[in-house]
Design a protein that fits this description.
Strand order of the largest sheet: 1-8-2-3-4-7
Shape: globular
Structural class: alpha+beta
Largest sheet: 6 strands, antiparallel
Order of helices and strands: EEEEEEEEHHH
Distance between the termini: 30 Å
Strand content: 25-35%
Oligomer: single chain
Helix content: 25-40%
Length: about 140
């Protein structure tokens, strides 16, 4: 779940936006927007902030985006409300030590979950570089 209070910004969502799913407490980041093979109309693929999803960004073998299992969720665009999170500084303070611990412990599952969150929250580049290097991307 998100840290701190989320403030609705409204409007259409775009890939990369943080959103709250209406009628739920689910918060996540838009990773896909468009048409799908499983249902007509426009859909939004969300990487949830916690294991609140139903998939890994794929449905019936079609990959729309990638995230850890149970972190992916598809909803109609009308159910995704764009938000801002005023507590990014709090998130950075919380994520930086977790990220460094996961990197030093070669916890690849933890890094896979933490790296996108840390990057989005603006964690210092040095902390991210070390984690990405261990994860094998530098």
């Amino acid at each position: 779940r998100g840290t701190g209070d989320a403030v609705a910004r409204g409007g259409l969502v775009e890939v990369g936006d943080w959103v709250r799913v209406t009628r739920t407490a689910i918060i996540g980041r838009v990773r896909f927007k468009g048409r799908t093979h499983f249902q007509s109309g426009d859909w939004v693929g969300i990487e949830c902030d916690g294991p609140d999803g139903r998939n890994d960004g794929s449905v019936d073998g079609h990959h729309y985006f990638r995230c850890p299992q149970s972190y992916g969720l598809f909803v109609r665009e009308s159910r995704a409300v764009r938000i801002t999170t005023p507590s990014d500084e709090e998130a950075r303070r919380e994520l930086t030590p977790k990220l460094l611990d996961a990197a030093e412990g070669h916890d690849f599952a933890g890094l896979r979950v933490l790296l996108p969150k840390a990057s989005a929250a603006g964690v210092a580049a040095g902390s991210l570089d070390n984690a990405w290097r261990i994860f094998g991307f530098q």
